[in-house]
Hints:
Elements: E1 4-9, E2 39-40, E3 90-105, E4 114-127, E5 138-147, H1 152-156, E6 175-188, E7 192-199, E8 235-243, E9 248-256, E10 272-284, E11 289-300, E12 316-329, E13 338-347, E14 357-366, E15 376-385, E16 396-406, E17 411-421, E18 424-425, E19 428-429, E20 433-443
Antiparallel strand pairs: 1-6, 1-8, 3-4, 3-20, 4-5, 5-6, 6-7, 7-8, 8-9, 9-10, 10-11, 11-12, 12-13, 13-14, 14-15, 15-16, 16-17, 17-20, 18-19
Amino acid sequence: MATIRIGKVQQSTTAICVVLLFSIQGFADDTDRFIVPVSAVNQDTSLELETDLLLASTAASLVSTNYDTYCDLGDRPGLLGYALHGNDWLTAQYVYTGEVFNNTRGGLTTDNATRYTGRFDMVLAADLDGKCMFPGGRLFFHFQSLHGEGITDNIVGVHQRISNIDGNPGAGFNFSQLTQYWWEKELVEGVFTIRLGKILADSEFALATRGGDFINTSLGWTHTIPVLPAYPDSSAAVIGFLQLNDHLEFKAGVWDGQPDGGNWGFSGTGEVFAIGQLTANYTLGCGDLPGDTHLGAWNHNGTFTDQTGGADHGANYGVYWGMSQLIRRECACDDDQGLGAFAQWGWAPDDRNEAEQYWGAGLVYTGLIQGRDADTIGFGVGNMSFGDRLPGTQDETMIELFYKARLGPHVILQPDFQYFSNPRSGGTTNPDSFVVGLRFQTIL
């Protein structure tokens, strides 16, 4: 099905809610479209409460992207019950994500190296078609409030950000903002959809669908797109979705090229970011092992400084690829439990980008421990190559291990361990670092 989206788009909003993907309750036909990445989101599909909340990302910081698993909420939409969660056409969801991280060795410093970060996400969605309200379609609003600075910049000093709910030096680390607001309408049933508004690009493009439970941002979306409107900075955008057949989808979007999550999405600079992606969905085995792969390209019409001090460049561009695959299903009757894998790669010219190439890969297992069928364990690796134009630089490699425990339908606890080889920041390479952390998420 094709869809067009207009609005302010933000990257994996990972702020305190690791990329949360909420499928809005009651939108039976297109719940998969309501995604909120944490960073970062990073995006947290495990909390897919029927409200594809792009938290985790794109969440780069809003939402998690593990679309194939979610936590059953039972009879209640959240800890607050039904009173504040809307009705059959207007749905509200609230998520709080908190985490504490410590740098145990290496990096910039291990003194006073523990920090707490928290983020509150609120998502409101309205099904205008269900109420026969003009102009039809769906409305989506995503509010985020972040407090506390993580350890990425001043304690570890690393390019691949440690948390998908953390802010950044440009956007700040304590803010409250309407990260996303958009309207979506299916113009040709089953074929074409449009979305308009302020949107996070990492909620739809260059993301690994099975990488959303990881906390480090690099395993949520491809990290060779420095101009991607990603969490926490979204911008005004138009996205079109074209369903070519049952297995192929093409989508493309245009964003304001100077994203800022704190404004209404318009910079007035005339700079434009454009991206397009072809996605193929398929199944292996006896049709019980779903997978997907995507190939995309992007362009930005701004001016970019030459990495070696030469003349400025009048544009920026790159390509990326990714895939996700369920490898083993524990039981033919069980849709959630089993082993999945993902891989991703990206390239951008090294004369105008610090990072020339990126690759990442990981394994995620749901229900590995008997009696803990909804828990997830994951192991992933991300590698940044900075190109030959920056002398003396070495690849930065990140290794992450986590265990995500679901303590009932509304609470998640996630211990996390990350190791960095040659962490890089501010043009310098820092000592290898080992980071430990603990995240919790509550569906209110």
